[in-house]
Amino acid sequence: MTNAKIDLRELGETVLLTDGGLETSLVFMDGLDLPFFAAFPLLGEEEGQDRLARYFRQFLDIAEQRGVGFVLDTPTWRANPDWGGKLGYSDKALSATNRHAVSWARALGAPYAARGMVVLVNGVVGPRGDGYRVDAVMTTAEAENYHIDQIKAFRDAGADMVSAITMTYSHEAAGIACAAMASGLPSVISFTVETDGRLPSGESLKEAIETVDDETDGAPAYFMINCAHPSHFDAVLAGDGGWVGRIRGVRANASARSHAELDAATELDPGDPVDLGRRYRAMRDRFGHIGVLGGCCGTDARHIAAICDACL
Question: Which residues are in the Hcy-binding domain (predicted)?
């Protein structure tokens, strides 16, 4: 199933699910060691692929049972030159891994698509630096040049879309959107925020979204918020400004802890799945256009099921 079947700019009140917190589930629930929080090396071994498949099938099954579509991520959040280099991957090996990630995801979603479910294979791009703080700051042009090889690999392997996940400042996000546009793929930009609702850069969500739209002529299909608890950004989603309408998805953390607290945590904080579902319901009641629903750190199938129970 490809994005020719669904226009990401015209979702209306269509609901699409995503998975939860991939890396936190693998580390804290499965007991895996993920150096640098990178899941993509698991694609290089049969056992790793099996673990990833078991993880994603939980969420694909939930989406199928609820009769909604699914955005199937590639496990490539860390598969860029800086993080890949720390893990010993050459640029050539990274490109091959990113292409393989798309074909692997396509095969995983194929049985669901064959039964009529919309499954969008989503090439995931992560920040060049840390996902909780701003480092390795780039201009928009520098970010486009940095990320374009990964995005081209996704395109060449047949990805349906590209998502920049856990973006900490606007210019890197804009560069990724430009790289996706140059590669002929629709893009989604997902910002993370601190407990005050502002990006780690200090930008407001409004400023960040409007900056990306201004610098890319509105290239992203839509924007998202991820890796933050709803209590961190609920108050800033106010008014009827056009920027709020550009936010179509949320992938919240299970925990209401700050990024600094989560970074230092040695145990998983799963929060309250039922309460998280209620918060999504309240958000949907206010903003019916927010229909791409999933989770981030600390969330698992229980949280996604609770979100569905509350919202569908």
Answer: 4-311
Binding-site positions: 227, 296-297
**Contact assessment for residue 293 and residue 244, using Cβ atoms and an 8 Å cutoff:** no
List per-block mean pLDDT (blocks of 10 residues) for the chain, which spans 312 residues. Answer: 66 93 96 96 97 98 98 98 97 98 98 97 97 90 98 98 98 98 98 97 97 98 98 87 93 92 84 98 95 97 98 96
The structural domain count of the chain equals: 1
Q: Is the pTM here over 0.90, yes or no?
A: yes
- For residues 226 and 62, give the distance between their C-alpha atoms in angstroms, rounded to a whole number: 20
* Residue positions forming the annotated binding site for Zn(2+): 227, 296-297
Is 9 among the domain residues?
no
Find the CATH number of the domain harbouring 251.
Answer: 3.20.20.330
Residue 263 lies in a domain: yes
Task: Give the up-direction half-sphere exposure of residue 93: CA atoms within 13 A in the CB hemisphere.
Answer: 13
Whether residue 6 lies inside any domain: the answer is no
